[in-house]
């Protein structure tokens, strides 16, 4: 039963039902079992990652679908199509894209590595790169920020003094 009362802030939003339908009615018209999904629970301004759930800063809850065999094949094809000569070889001899491929194919759920994204703050990489390799990756072509103008720096210092008043 759906309640539709704007005065209480309760509305039947068709966009929400469309999102729900997307997750509950796959293109193949097969039902999704709980074994194939993991819940995504949301908390305001907090991201928490656990084995069975992912929390992201959001106000809605959805389900993350487990990667299908076709998804894994597509991911494998993306990595196979990379030019071997253009791959990044670290000083230790480790090829970054090969390690990313190894990790991407081991994932059961979507991850930025499936789009060739290496987030150095993601703790998942500790099993694939050593601390020295991660340091080399994060410091490669690192940009140095220009010195802040004195007037701006002074202004920020003044704002820091007001922080105690806000708390």
Strand segment tally: 4
Q: Which radius of gyration do the C-alpha atoms yield? A: 23 Å
- State the separation between the terminal residues, measured CA to CA: 44 Å
Gross geometry? elongated
Listing every helix as H and every strand as E from the N terminus to the C terminus, the arrangement reads HEEEEHHHH
Largest sheet: 4 strands, mixed
Structural class: alpha+beta
Tell me the domain tally. Answer: 2
Please report the number of helical segments. Answer: 5
Overall average residue pLDDT:
73
- Order of strands in the sheet with most strands: 2-3-1-4
Note poorly predicted spans: 1-61
* Helical coverage, percent range: 25-40%
Structural notes for this entry:
- A hairpin with a 3-residue loop joins strand 2 and strand 3.
- The chain has 167 residues and is α+β, with helices and mostly antiparallel strands.
- The longest helix has 17 residues, at 150-166.
- The protein has two domains: 6-65, no CATH class; 69-139, no CATH class.
- Helix 2 packs antiparallel against helix 3.
- The protein has a four-stranded mixed β-sheet.
- It is built from five helices and four strands; from the N terminus they run H-E-E-E-E-H-H-H-H.
């Amino acid at each position: 039963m759906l309640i539709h009362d704007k005065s209480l802030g309760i509305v039947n939003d068709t966009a929400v039902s469309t999102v729900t339908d997307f997750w509950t009615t796959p293109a193949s018209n097969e039902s999704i079992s709980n074994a194939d999904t993991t819940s995504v629970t949301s908390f305001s301004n907090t991201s928490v990652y656990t084995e069975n759930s992912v929390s992201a800063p959001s106000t809605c809850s959805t389900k993350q679908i487990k990667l299908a065999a076709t998804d894994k094949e597509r991911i494998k094809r993306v990595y196979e199509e990379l030019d071997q000569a253009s791959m990044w070889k670290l000083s230790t001899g480790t090829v970054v894209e090969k390690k990313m491929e190894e990790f991407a194919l081991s994932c059961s759920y979507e991850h930025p590595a499936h789009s060739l994204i290496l987030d150095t703050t993601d703790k998942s990489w500790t099993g694939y790169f050593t601390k020295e390799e991660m340091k080399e990756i994060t410091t490669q072509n690192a940009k140095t920020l220009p010195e802040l103008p004195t007037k701006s720096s002074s202004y920020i210092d003044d704002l820091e003094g007001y922080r105690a008043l806000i708390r």
